[in-house]
Design goal:
The protein is an alpha/beta fold. It is built from 2 helices and 8 strands, in the order E-H-E-E-E-E-H-E-E-E.
Length: 122
């Protein structure tokens, strides 16, 4: 049996969220329905965007979990380049690059207020 870990992010509009995440990740969805879209992130890992579970999500509601995009090598120049690219694309930045003890990291949000951390791959 093949096992995959799917991180599900609840969104109001799955196609709009897929465009947002597709731009950030530089990839196209691997599976699409009107309310559930996934991205194949590599062996055993998928990102799912689901609009069928929670309707009318508000960005004003605090989110306590985050999707973490781990950068291979975790070089500060790579992380800073990602930060600058996202900032220029109009991505909401919640916290600019800073050292969090495990390396340089920054925090952003998707249009539904879900938190996205970029950090070095451990």
């Amino acid at each position: 049996m093949t096992t995959s870990v799917v991180s599900i992010v609840y969104v109001n509009d799955a196609p709009a969220a897929a465009r947002f995440y597709g731009d950030l990740l530089g990839m196209s969805p691997s599976f699409e329905t009107p309310g559930y879209i996934t991205f194949d992130l590599g062996p055993g890992a998928d990102l799912g965007l689901w609009s069928g579970q929670f309707e009318d999500l508000s960005p004003d509601v605090p989110r306590t979990s985050e999707v973490c995009l781990a950068i291979d090598g975790g070089r500060p120049d790579e992380l800073n380049a990602t930060f600058e690219r996202w900032k220029s694309q109009g991505v909401t930045i919640l916290r600019e690059p800073h050292d969090a003890g495990f390396g340089l990291t920054f925090l952003a949000a998707d249009p539904d207020g879900n938190r996205i951390r970029v950090a070095p791959k451990g």
